[in-house]
Amino acid sequence: MVKDKSKLKITKIIFVSLKVAAIIVVAIVLLAFVFGGREFFGFLCKGLTAPRPPKPKIKYAEFPFTLVYKIDGEEYTISDVITYKYRGVEWSGDFVIGYNRWEQKLKSGNKRIVLLEINDITVYYPTSDSASYYMGGKGREIVFTGDAAITDKNTNENYIEPISADDLLNKYGIKLISWEIAPPIKNIYR
């Protein structure tokens, strides 16, 4: 008899907890609809129904590279390794598109492939947005164009401004000669 009463008490507690949780969920949805409007409600539904991108079988790879360039006629070579590591799924701002997130690093520990630093200006060779391509997915290859990018610590270190090969030569005396990187891997996405 005592066991039946304790089971009944536990069942009541579970039932009440579920009832309270359901009331809270309904209240949140109603408040979101009232204060956020149809757009917010649609946003909420998209996030729950958006398809997840397939995951890669190979989640880490290394790509050795060599960049040759000249500054005022003197030749320099940078050899390092770009590593890509899978970091899960990331969603676009409106939850409509999910994509695989990759972490890109240089094995040397450097943040960027720096060609020149003058005062607060850093001139570097851009390699971002290429992880998906090199990891066997759809994406952009690092194409050698002779162009580079700069950042200015006085404005915003994260702001990236592209600079053409002509401006690179005229303003900084830099001419990019060649870029070689290991080919993309063959990967399976499921």
What labels would you give this structure?
single chain, 190 residues, alpha+beta, 2 domains, 4-stranded antiparallel β-sheet, 32% helix
Offer a quick outline of the entry.
The chain is of the alpha+beta class and 190 residues long. It has helices at residues 2-49, 131-134, 165-172; strands spanning 60-71, 74-91, 98-106, 113-118, 121-125, 148-152, 156-163, 174-181.
Task: Describe the structure in your own words.
It is a single chain. The protein has 190 residues and is α+β, with helices and mostly antiparallel strands. It folds into two domains: 1-49; 60-181, no CATH class. It has three helices and eight strands. The strands form two sheets. Strands 3-2-1-8 form a four-stranded antiparallel beta sheet. A four-stranded antiparallel beta sheet has the order 4-5-6-7. β1 and β2 (74-91) form a beta hairpin. It is elongated and about 90 Å long. 13% of the residues are buried. The model has no long low-confidence stretch (mean pLDDT 85).
Oligomer: single chain
Helix percent band: 25-40%
Number of strands: 8
Beta percentage is 35-45%
Average pLDDT taken over every residue: 85
- Counted by DSSP, the helix tally is 3
**Adjacency order of strands in the biggest sheet:** 3-2-1-8
Could you give the order of the helices and strands? HEEEEEHEEHE
Number of domains: 2
Largest sheet: 4 strands, antiparallel
